[in-house]
Write a structure and sequence with these properties.
The chain is mainly alpha-helical. Helix content is 54%, strand content 6%.
Length: 108
């Protein structure tokens, strides 16, 4: 599996043709999945709408932290809790993974 395939999110139920094909213009790829960046952008648009004109603060830190926590938790689940395997999936060393898990309280 290449990085482009990994950049996809879960399938969406609406906007698909029979057989799981993406309908034209729905933002889905041929495999019926949306790129992760499309999902993130949609959530950011919702966040800005909720701010209702207020100025966001430390948005980069917020988004990167939330995304990294979700990434680590999901990869660790898919690695069956095996931190060495999760580190391989992520392309980082095990020590870095353990540090990040502690930082986000995911080490317990």
């Amino acid at each position: 599996m290449n990085n482009r395939q990994i950049e996809t999110s879960g399938k969406r139920d609406n906007g698909q043709r029979a057989g799981g094909e993406a309908a034209p213009g729905d933002g889905l790829g041929a495999n019926g999945c949306r790129p992760v960046k499309v999902c993130i952008e949609a959530e950011l648009e919702r966040y800005f709408a909720m701010l209702d004109g207020q100025t966001p603060a430390a948005l980069h830190k917020l988004v990167i932290g939330e995304a990294e926590q979700a990434l680590l938790a999901c990869v660790l689940r898919h690695a069956g809790g095996n931190q060495s395997r999760a580190a391989q999936y992520l392309g980082i060393n095990s020590g870095t993974l353990r540090k990040k898990l502690r930082e986000y309280g995911l080490d317990g």
